[in-house]
Design goal:
Bound molecules: MU-OXO-diiron
Number of helices: 5
Helix content: over 70%
CATH superfamily: Ferritin, core subunit, four-helix bundle
CATH architecture: Up-down Bundle
Distance between the termini: 29 Å
Shape: elongated
Largest sheet: none
Mean pLDDT: 96
Amino acid sequence: MLSEKMQEALNTQINKELYSSYLYLSMAAWCESVNLSGFANWMTVQAREEVSHAEKFFGYLNERGGRVLLQPIEGPPTEWGSVAEVFGQVLEHEQLVTSLINGLVKLARSEDDYASEAFLQWFVSEQVEEEASASAAVEKLKLAGDRGGGLFMLDREMGTRVFTPPAAE
Ligand code: FEO
């Protein structure tokens, strides 16, 4: 059985994952508005991944006899100055999520909740990938610049990303 505190923290994390999805969908909408449909595709895939993260927490809470309590999702920003700014914010956001996951691991340890600690390990590894892919995009954007052929090529590359459900990884 989960402690009240852990249940609350996992419910909060469901909300953060759904907010992440909302944020990336908003970024996808912005990318579409400036005709960068490849970047928009990347963001849409990212948004779906975030929903799958929320679902993982949802499933785990239920499995442990907890109660899922969904909370209102904060509104995301809607405007950015450039695609480089968008990806800078993706990286910052993923760094924040990493700190939230680390906080959950700390809580699990402090409560001797070994099952939650084991469950959270998947997210610890996932965050390494999340930060790495955001960071790679930031670097590529630095090389490509904010317009012209480089950005066009990068947009094409971003357009090839496809969603892979975590269970199939
Ligand atoms: Fe759910 Fe991008 O971390």
